[in-house]
């Protein structure tokens, strides 16, 4: 199965203090670069990075091996990012996309591989029973999913209604995203004047 990785990184990060696409790990590695590395390490053939808020600054942090997908309507919420990514993926020969949000910089390659290992058209990682990422969505579901997305609602409802395979990954990682800065080194770069 040919899988295209997708990093969702278009939001403004209001609770975080700035776009999470601009955040870095304490060692200086941008979260967006870490997400790309994780998806490629898991076996994705290509990686798309959906960017919106402060797109030009964030694009400079995206590794050259990945493709930036502009999300002009990023302020409309997560739905706009997922739709833009699915549209871009439709222009490739991918059979499926593996979605991860940028605010999971410590997501393990092993979690991604486990979800990919289902070989199914719809699968989602869970962490001790709680829904999480990555999420695998086969091409046959892209149009239907895109039509159900609205605002900040992601694919969760669609996945549940369609009976997505649930893949427990709690033994590999905690599954939590980062909504608030934990330390100054995790804050997004301030806006330039």
- The separation of the N and C termini measures 46 Å
Fill in the CATH topology. Answer: Spore Coat Polysaccharide Biosynthesis Protein SpsA, Chain A
Number of helices: 6
The sequence of SSEs as H and E is EHEHEHEHEEHHE
- Estimated structural class: alpha/beta
Helix proportion: 25-40%
Beta fraction of the residues? 15-25%
Low-confidence parts, pLDDT < 50 over ≥5 residues? 189-193
Q: How many extended strands?
A: 7
Placed side by side, the strands forming the largest sheet appear as 3-2-1-4-6-5-7
- Architecture in CATH? Alpha-Beta Complex
Mean pLDDT across the residues is 92
**CATH top-level class:** Alpha Beta
What is the number of independent domains?
1
Specify the CATH homologous superfamily.
Answer: Spore Coat Polysaccharide Biosynthesis Protein SpsA, Chain A
Global shape: globular
Largest sheet: 7 strands, mixed
Rounded to an integer in angstroms, the radius of gyration calculated over CA atoms is 15 Å
